[in-house]
Each structure stands twice: as C-alpha cells, then as structure tokens.
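Milestone M4 deliverable, item 7.
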Amino acid sequence: MALLSKEQITSADDRKWEDVPVPEWGGTVRLVGMSGTERNAYQSSLVVLGPNGKPQRMNMADQLAKLVGKCLVDENFERLFTDKEIKALGAKNGAVLERLAQIAQRLSGLRKEDVEAAEGKSEPTPSDASTTG
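Output delivered:
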C-alpha cells in the first residue's frame, strides 16, 4: 500500500457527523466531531493551571455546553454557537445537553473506550527501522 501524501491527508474529509432528533427543542440538530485543534482547545478549557504552570484543578463550569457548542453545526458545518455564546446553550435542559454531549464525545473520540480502542488498533513501531547495516 502506498503512503499518503500531505495533499491526500489534508484534502481527506474525515469528519464524522450525525443528525440527532431533539424533541424537547422541536426539531433535529447536527453534531460534528471536533478537529484535533478544537478537541485540544476544549480539553485545555477544562484545566485550570496554577502559578507554576501545572494543572491545579478541573474547571467543570458549563462543561456540557462547551462540548456541545463546539460540535453543534448547521447544514454547512458552520458552528451554531461561538465560545462567547456558550452560557446561553448551558441554560438549556441538562438532560438534553448530556444526551448530545455523549454523541459529541463519541464523534470526537473523547470517550474512554474510544481512546482504548484506538490504542489497541495501533500498530507497533518497528524497533529497528534503520536501513543501514
């Protein structure tokens, strides 16, 4: 199998998304998995660093709304809520946010079982990759 080029990698549409009925809101929403950059920003937003730069505590304020807000998109895959609008989303029904957050976690590979599955699927790196003799 040939190795992928940079162009092939960057042009591949690898987004996972799902349309989810939300009867409490009177319709359907679209959730898309976060990119690596978005996922890192989300995870960083949950950590409060101490003066020494080391993690001090978790910031769980609006955790569900932050996650769902990063994943809720319109039909053109544009985010519906900016980071500044998360409070409004966080005011919605917690059970609905939890249900949507579980889907967003799955689509973004954030669940513990997703991480474990990815680790189990990775191929071991050859220890002697040198071509010199």
